[in-house]
């Protein structure tokens, strides 16, 4: 069997998986889970800002809250399956994406959703973890190497770049390109557009701050500064008018969650 035949069969299998109604419906569930996690993270951020409690404003913090709720572990198993399906659906785009940027996006998002699925499964099985501890621990390990500082700086700059791109994506409404291409009517409701704009901008602010903290951790040789999303949001809250800023970012992250839930509708209608 020559390479062209193998490639055609691989692409055919990827197309079959990508378009299969079972996988698409499970991937929709994955988007809903992603949205609910962002809503919870946003609410935790607002609670931190107002001094009414909180927890860890991260995916782990949100998953921990779900795990503590009645029937939470069952819900987390469902979430893990949905996120795994969404990862697989995104990975299929690596093989069938019309352009290189579509394939790259599929690979990156596939990895993100796969790790989130694994984390959800860990909480469903009764385990626990902290995004902040993992980020600090990983940073500490890398900084111990002779090449550690430039690598951590590069990672921080990449995260900052993700944040800046998210800001751009929200401000220019570039996120509409993908969902409008999948919408049957080509029309997306104004409420979804508004949630997407505010959500992407808030997410961009959070990631830009997070990237800056990672770079700071490298330059100061202090891995504790690279404490994950929770640390980035708390840093926002410590600035002048920080309570107001953190509330705005928290509400924005919650709106991004609303956008993700609405986004589930636009998986190849």
TrEMBL record:
It comes from the Bacteria. Pfam families: DUF1206. The chain crosses the membrane at residues 29-49, 74-92, 104-125, 145-168, 188-219, 239-262. Keywords: Membrane, Transmembrane, Transmembrane helix. Residues 29-94, 107-172, 198-266 form the DUF1206 domain. This is Membrane protein.
């Amino acid at each position: 069997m020559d390479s062209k035949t193998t490639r055609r069969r691989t692409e055919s299998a990827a197309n079959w998986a990508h378009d299969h109604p079972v996988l698409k419906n499970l991937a929709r569930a994955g988007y809903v889970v992603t949205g609910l996690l962002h809503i919870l993270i946003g609410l935790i951020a607002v609670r931190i800002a107002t001094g009414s409690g909180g927890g860890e404003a991260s995916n782990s913090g949100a998953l921990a809250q779900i795990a503590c709720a009645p029937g939470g572990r069952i819900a987390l198993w469902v979430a893990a399956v949905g996120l795994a399906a969404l990862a697989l659906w995104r990975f299929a785009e690596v093989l069938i994406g019309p352009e290189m940027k579509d394939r790259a996006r599929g690979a990156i998002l596939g990895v993100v959703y796969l790790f989130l699925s694994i984390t959800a499964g860990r909480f469903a099985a009764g385990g626990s973890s902290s995004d902040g501890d993992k980020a600090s621990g990983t940073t500490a390990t890398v900084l111990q190497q002779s090449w550690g500082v430039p690598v951590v700086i590069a990672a921080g700059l990449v995260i900052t770049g993700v944040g800046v791109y998210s800001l751009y994506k929200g401000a220019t409404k570039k996120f509409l390109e993908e969902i409008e291409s999948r919408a049957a009517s080509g029309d997306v409701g104004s409420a979804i557009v508004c949630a997407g704009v505010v959500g992407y901008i808030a997410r961009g602010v959070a990631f830009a701050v997070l990237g800056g903290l990672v770079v700071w951790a490298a330059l100061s040789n202090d891995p504790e500064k690279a404490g994950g999303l929770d640390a980035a949001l708390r840093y926002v809250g410590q600035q002048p008018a920080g309570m107001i800023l953190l509330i705005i970012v928290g509400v924005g992250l919650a709106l991004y969650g609303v956008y993700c839930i609405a986004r589930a509708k636009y998986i190849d209608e």
